[in-house]
Amino acid sequence: MAAATTTTQVFCLAVAEKTDSVVRILASEADLSSYSFFHRPAIAEFVNFFTKTVVERTPLGQRAKIEEKEFLGHVFIRPDGLAVVMITIATYPSRTAFSLLNRLAEEFSSKFPQKATWATMNPSTTATRYPELKLHLQKAQDPQSADPFMRVQKELDETKIVLHKTMESLLARGEKLDDLIVKSDQLSGASKAFYKTAKKTNSCCGM
């Protein structure tokens, strides 16, 4: 299977909650239109797996950029455990990505200020409870038009630590991504088989 075309620059925007014991995706929107219809379910599972893994392995209060094959994951986790994630093509400007995530975190916490409301949220309710997320995803497809949409970047300019990591570097010593995928209960048997095939052919799903 061929990699996604550049018509889609942002594959996913997600909001999650990170606690000591679990990572819960609260809202998520994806654009996988550049991929074959038959492969989209497997890719959607890997996007979900990637999102949970990077949130789980990134410390509170940190912004990180994770490279994995032709994908680029941007994550921002606030001290209160609210996490926002953006998965893009490898050449997507990080300034624009983190700017959007900064605004996204503020908007979400303003609309849903109490953690008690987060417990009732999940990706299946995104369209009705947080329809703005889909609009942000659409707007982000064009970085040049998305930038003016964001607030002034002073805070991001002053941020000294934005990590550059690969997925492998997020794992604990001795862990391997292949083993993590095999053990994951987030991925179906079909998706795991698809991953193995894609890896052998250096195809799209390096996640």
From TrEMBL:
Any single GO BP term: endoplasmic reticulum to Golgi vesicle-mediated transport
Domain V-SNARE coiled-coil homology: 148-207
Family of this protein: Belongs to the synaptobrevin family.
Subcellular location: Endomembrane system
GO molecular function: SNAP receptor activity
Descriptive protein name: Palmitoyltransferase
UniProtKB keywords: Coiled coil, Lipoprotein, Membrane, Methylation, Palmitate, Prenylation
SMART domains referenced in this protein's UniProt entry, alphabetically: Longin (SM01270)
GO CC annotation, single: Golgi apparatus
Main location, first listed in the record: membrane
Ranges where the Longin domain occurs: 14-134
Regions annotated as coiled coil: none
Gene: YKT6_1
A Pfam family per the record: Synaptobrevin
Cross-referenced InterPro entries: Longin-like_dom_sf (IPR011012), Longin_dom (IPR010908), R-SNARE_YKT6 (IPR045848), V_SNARE_CC (IPR042855)
Organism, as annotated: Geranomyces variabilis
Membrane topology: Lipid-anchor
